[in-house]
TrEMBL record:
Residues forming coiled coils: none
Protein name: Four helix bundle protein
Lineage of the species this protein comes from: Bacteria, Pseudomonadati, Bacteroidota, Flavobacteriia, Flavobacteriales
Pfam (any one): 23S_rRNA_IVP
Organism: Psychroflexus aurantiacus
Domain of life: Bacteria
């Protein structure tokens, strides 16, 4: 089966694993958050992988960089929502710290992709 270019990107695969983590962690959120914070967190993390995939398919380096920028912004949205989830006592701070480390590494890789696209 043919693979698309984004599937071979290490960062896209890292985000795919983080997506699984986010889905697992949000399963324990209260029912009243199902259509609010749970939905928002899941949409934001899906946006990260989607924008990396879309950016990798763009012909223009400027377009690529734009989608990588959006991916990074969505990643920061995920972090923000996780920090709020700690304050609301939906998740433990120690769990978010583990995710924060993954987010930091992914953010670095996304920014590297963006810089590489702009410098070509």
């Amino acid at each position: 089966m043919k693979k698309f270019s984004f599937e071979s990107l290490e960062v896209w695969n890292d985000v795919k694993l983080l997506t699984k983590d986010i889905y697992i962690i949000t399963k324990s959120f209260p029912e009243e958050e199902k259509y609010v914070l749970v939905s928002q967190l899941r949409r934001a993390i899906i946006s990260v992988s989607s924008n990396i995939a879309e950016g990798s398919s763009r012909m223009s380096k400027k377009d690529q960089a734009h989608f990588y920028h959006i991916a990074f912004s969505s990643l920061m949205e995920v972090l923000s929502q996780l920090l709020i989830s700690v304050e609301l006592e939906y998740v433990r701070e120690s769990d978010v710290e583990k995710l924060r480390e993954k987010i930091s590494n992914i953010g670095y890789k996304i920014n590297s992709l963006r810089r590489a696209a702009l410098n070509r």
